[in-house]
Amino acid sequence: MFLAAFTSSGPREVSPDATLLSSLLQKDVSAFEQLYDRHSRLVYGLVLRILQQASTSEEVVQDVFLQLWRNAAQYDASRGPFVPWLCTMARNRALDHLRLKSERQRRREDIPDELPSAVVAPEYEKALDEKRRAERVRALMASLTPQQKKAIELAYFEGLSHSEIAATLKEPLGTVKSWIRNGLLRLKEGLQATT
Amino acid sequence: MKNCDQFRELIEAHALGALDLEERAVLEAHLATGCPDCAKAVEEARWLVSQLAYAAPEAAPSDMLKGRLMQTVRAEAQEQAKPHVMPAKSAIPFWLWAGIAALLVFSIYSAWNTQRLENEIRQANERATVLQAEGQKIQEQLADAKRAATIMMDPTSHKIALWGEHAHPETLEAKWHSQLGVCIMGDKVPMPGANHVLQLWFIPKKEGGKPMPSAMVRPDANGKLMLYVSAPPESMDDTKAIAITEEPAGGSGWPTTPILWSGNVS
Fold first, then answer.
1. ipTM, 2 dp
2. Taking the CB of the first residue and of the last residue of chain A, which one, N or C, has fewer CB atoms within 10 A?
3. Interface of B with A (CB under 8 A)
4. Which of B18, B20, B69 faces A180 most closely, judged by CB atoms?
5. A138 contact B CB<8A
């Protein structure tokens, strides 16, 4: 089941993460190191963007990768690709930290150990390497209106709700909802068009 | 799926985590119904939102982070790789085997000794119970003898001569004390047959009254007889005579043999 997620996707490229994740189930330290080398920049960049503080961000990244090391078997790889799942876990962890008022109030055991469910790739998903995918997403974000981009960033990187974003931007709630929905739909269209 | 339109507008924001509580509750209630189209839309939205991670500027964590992580991971991997088994047989030193053997022998001896002591205690308790019963019996006999002696010596006791009949010419002496009871004594009394006893009867004055069965006794090896009755009829005035017959062991409810001794109370 685990490898099937990476080998049964038809014309898509077989993710090189597959072999490493399979080895990770056998507690292969080398496989873990390779996965870390491959994805730590993306994960750390995401967490740092959310927390804006290097030391706390490294702490969260450490939690994320240790969670991966200790609970790799809980990841249902048959349902979706690895990197979106890893990024979802990293974002959840970082937002958990962000929502806590102060570092002193937070204890490590307060952080939930639950892993996110798999992130299922849609049919229009195209196999892109990480670099091209990042370029494409950034380009699509840059193509949004400033309001759409700002609203989406406040929701994604700061974990704000519609009403919180409306209050932050001092804009009507309905307008904020439209910015976010239209911006995401435009992003989706752009990714669908990516070849 | 026109009915789902109102929910579809919420799905991207839900995946983004931007829905306020009320809208989130509405959407999740709908998803809980198992709507397959909306479930698929949710999965697509989750993937779409996950792509926003690439919008963050890529940054490299410090080498120290990797060092800490790898140190932890290696330590945990080594810990898990350790075989959690009992030490090999040869790894157990001789002195430990000797200690185990000594402990085993001591345990067996202790168990045997405990059982032996328990048996001795049980036997001692049984002997004590028997002795206690014998002591109580002796005390009762002694008390009876004292009462019998008192009856025999008390001047207020009423003397009754029991005359032997048939082949028993010996005379027995009886005394009736109004409060202490009746005592009968005699010497050279013939021994009754095997499994038989001498039984005392109180013969009522009332015409046709039934003889009242009373105490039983066997003379000792020298022919001495002492019979004590602590609870004779309430009044001597109602009793015409007392008599003794030979009856089977355990006594009878009615005289089954001829009278051996008898005497009038009045």
1. 0.83
2. C
3. 9, 12-13, 16-20, 23, 43-62, 64-66, 68-70, 72-74, 76-77, 80-81
4. B18
5. yes
